[in-house]
Amino acid sequence: MKISKLHIDQFRHLENLDFDFTYPEDFHIEEKRGKPLDKICFIGQSATGKTGLLDLFFDYINYTFNCERINKRFIGARFNAKNLDGILEFSLNNKNKSNIKLQNDSISIDDNIYVYENGNGGKVDKLIPLSEVEPLYYFKANILSEENLKSISTHPNDLYEKNKEYIDSLNTVSLNTLLPQQSSYVFDNNIDEKIWLKVLNEYIIYLKNFTQKMSELIHQGLLSDSKKLEKEYKIWENDNPKKLLDFAEKLNPILIKLGLEIDTVDTRFAVPIKNIRKDEVIQISNLSTGTKQLLLTSLPLYQLNTKDSIILIDEPERSLFPDIQMELMDHYKNLAPEAQFIVATHSPFIAASFEPEERFILYFDKEGKVAVRRGTSPIGDDPNDILFNDFGVNYYNEDVQGKFKEYIELLDKVKSEDNKELKKKYILEASKLGNQYNFILDEKNQERLQ
After folding, report:
1. Is 90 exceeded by the pLDDT of residue 35?
2. Which of 13, 61, 371, 424 gets the most CB atoms within 10 Å of its CB?
3. How far is CA 19 from CA 5, 36, 37, 136, 207, in A?
4. For the chain, what percentages of helix, strand and coil (3-state, to nearest 5) are there?
5. Nearest CA to 267 among 379, 155, 406, 401?
6. What average pLDDT does this structure show over 211-235?
7. Which top CATH class is 2-135+305-390?
């Protein structure tokens, strides 16, 4: 599933906006030309509507998934979508590669148009069959909360005992097929505990079975026979692969930058995090704010089904140092390689992970209305250049602007001064100032030295 186009006549304070979420025909990767973007980045001042666009995508796609058709003519809705005057287009990766268009009170699926009406009577079918619904995830900026941390901070065996019936149902094929399929998830500050249990299910079951097996081996008296104990454990381990090892392989490369790693031996937590220098497992509550949010986002992305999904993330840079921000989108894409990511950010480090064609800059025009343009800085560009070119921010404050003016004046003096001693003095002062503030001798400034 991927979003390809959005036209807004009116949505909240946004008016007359067009978004083409496809790669242009001259894109440098030929096989992507004309296809929906793999990832989308919204940049803009506060109040330009970045988060509002994420809300729009979630509300309307979720609305479509919950619509029903009556007599193959009308659609009824379990939920009311928020008012959008405009058009949203997205595609499914089902066998028909269906193209879906929402336009005011109608929904088009390929060549079939369904008009909303509160009809009564007749056979009711899902507008889009459950088997063709693809996942939709929304990670909100307020995901960090004590409630969300509680599940991943609790001993897995305690989680199992408290929620035995539900966890057993997740692992019973006959019951699992009867459970309602959930197509959309919102990860905010109060996530339903059942979602976390679903995310942690494999870790909880592994540790429950591990505890039972160790107890069984101990009762067999194998503590006194270490070789036989190791042999029996390895046989069990081959039949019960440890999912945490795979997750550690995905998450540790970014955790190591924080001096942390997943401890694959400790059994006190579903996902134990270790301080590498001290070689000690840390209480989840004692992790930094940014690390907690990274964990709360990475776990669902790795554990839930993200194939052909759309993943919305508001402010992914929350409380993370720039070196982590620079690698964050690659990390998330590695966890969910077949998903379309759509993020709203204030970080030039996050924005640098996107092609210019994948960046959409929202700004206030001369009339005070929100307008949109695509990015210009290349992927991986210096964040300062992205700040200037795409964010429209002059990263020189008044103090630095004064120093830059002084720097330019010194270069002019170098060019006009005939006295060799003074010329040398001005060159040294300009060089010192340039090195201190990393001023660049561009072509125009080079001319001043000639």
Report:
1. yes
2. 61
3. 6, 12, 12, 20, 48
4. 45, 20, 35
5. 155
6. 80
7. alpha beta
